[in-house]
Amino acid sequence: xxxxxxxxxxxxxxxxxxxxxxxxxxxxxxxxxxxxxxxxxxxxxxxxxxxxxxxxxxxxxxxxxxxxxxxxxxxxxxxxxxxxxxxxxxxxxxxxxxxxxxxxxxxxxxxxxxxxxxxxxxxxxxxxxxxxxxxxxxxxxxxxxxxxxxxxxxxxxxxxxxxxxxxxxxxxxxxxxxxxxxxxxxxxxxxxxxxxxxxxxxxxxxxxxxxxxxxxxxxxxxxxxxxxxxxxxxxxxxxxxxxxxxxxxxxxxxxxxxxxxxxxxxxxxxxxxxxxxxxxxxxxxxxxxxxxxxxxxxxxxxxxxxxxxxxxxxxxxxxxxxxxxxxxxxxxxxxxxxxxxxxxxxxxxxxxxxxxxxxxxxxxxxxxxxxxxxxxxxxxxxxxxxxxxxxxxxxxxxxxxxxxxxxxxxxxxxxxxxxxxxxxxxxxxxxxxxxxxxxxxxxxxxxxxxxxxxxxxxxxxxxxxxxxxxxxxxxxxxxxxxxxxxxxxxxxxxxxxxxxxxxxxxxxxxxxxxxxxxxxxxxxxxxxxxxxxxxxxxxxxxxxxxxxxxxxxxxxxxxxxxxxxxxxxxxxxxxxxxxxxxxxxxxxxxxxxxxxxxxxxxxxxxxxxxxxxxxxxxxxxxxxxxxxxxxxxxxxxxxxxxxxxxxxxxxxxxxxxxxxxxxxxxxxxxxxxxxxxxxxxxxxxxxxxxxxxxxxxxxxxxxxxxxxxxxxxxxxxxx
Length: 719
Known about the structure:
5-stranded antiparallel sheet; alpha+beta; 19 helices; 9-stranded antiparallel sheet
């Protein structure tokens, strides 16, 4: 058993604890709040991929009513951490996907356990036990909390609660007309000393309990949504779950969860802190995988922050993990983007471009969730115009490169023929339509935003141009390969001739796209004009802030006219494309950009970790790994962008921490489909081992401090 435990409870950290102790199965996420806590504690049963918009507010994922809202009184006094708790602890069993809680009061003890089932993605289960310490009058109220917490809601314009004995059914109609159904069934453990009654849809339990008496309840909740074109059969499913019983549902869940957790786990010898942090990252990544084609939101399954949308995080920070450990989830992430091509074509047309301009904040079917105003000024409270939605064009290339990476690792021909090549083509069309060709025949991608979002509307961002070049080149390569091997299938495409005639133009673009090659000092300019900006570092800017929540970017942000950058940009490029840059070039750029990088995004540390390990700066690499892996465990992270709350799980940091160890410290790379290791273990780690997929073969590698690499094949388990 691998446990993350929190002893005591801090109300100042309540929101962070709710995030940290979240449980999920990729489709549903339930925040780590306590059963008696209401809306002020930000409880959430979030449905990943189920969206709604209320009035003119941001469109975001939907929270369902909290089904595990339980109020208990002993001798007329409520049992609550806020009133009279003597001792409290809560835990996540990381390798089993279980939340456990133990709270002791003067008169009673509460113990609970809950999970989001990996065996049935509609199902959540809770075991609730109250034990009295003395003869007592006990009153317990169980059922839905109708006061739903939302960031930009309410999302249900119509709600109905219907009780049938111990079963309560909720049916809500969203502002967009979709239906969300939830069923809750309360199953008391057989006892004879309590009475049962009902008040509307809530169950009321009253008992004259003797010293040491226990009251135990099993709560089963199921969620279905018309949004997913699935039948609304939550009532039927919850009854089936209750007949199966809590322990059998738990056993089925643990079997699946544990298998996937162990497949992804990195075992570290000699460093307890590093092991605990990477275990939590693997827990989040295991919990996020789903059979639904919904991708993985930037804040995972922890709630509505960032509108429940998927970003470029999915392709660059999450897909590499699943390619090594969970091919089905890797495939789902790619299919999500292929299915989103329709939305990308629509967005490109709206902005007067050709091809596929993918959503910066992607919701269902590639729908754009990003608005033109994403930050509020801390002084005036007014919205600040940002250009994420229309200028972060590297997202299309990130997706194209992810498809190429998936194909190179899996050789999944069908995915390429059933949409992959079409996406590559449409992304290439987009970049050609966006580009400007000067008199010398050089292409430029002007007026863009790179990974560093503090500098908006810049010209020829190095990262963006590299991604565009690689993606167009990838389409040209794939078209030639598939036209040769699968000409009949490819030639049946409606736009086959357009693809074929595009090749020469694409080759010209790849050959003549501007790239800021290093000057005499070896530094790659992040974008045109970057070297001319004010020479201010993040610490200097931070010292000058009048409000710690002030947004650093935008037209008038404190960093926008300086060399301070939000996150790895040039270093991200060099880390993601290591074979394109020499160690000498990497070192010069690493040393140059590091002092100017604020790491204001959780995506930044892992990119610097990869670079540091490659440069044999192993201790720096280790520190960046710890920062990335610890961001949700009390580490440094931003919860505010201006006056906008952006707290929640950092999925890219979880994926990035895995990359830091596997591709950084272990030095993994693939050459012609074969794994190659060039280890860079820091002194803090005696050895590490992990399993990975090489094609369809599962292998395990162990690396010790003497750089001894041992590789052995493993048998794969079937679900």
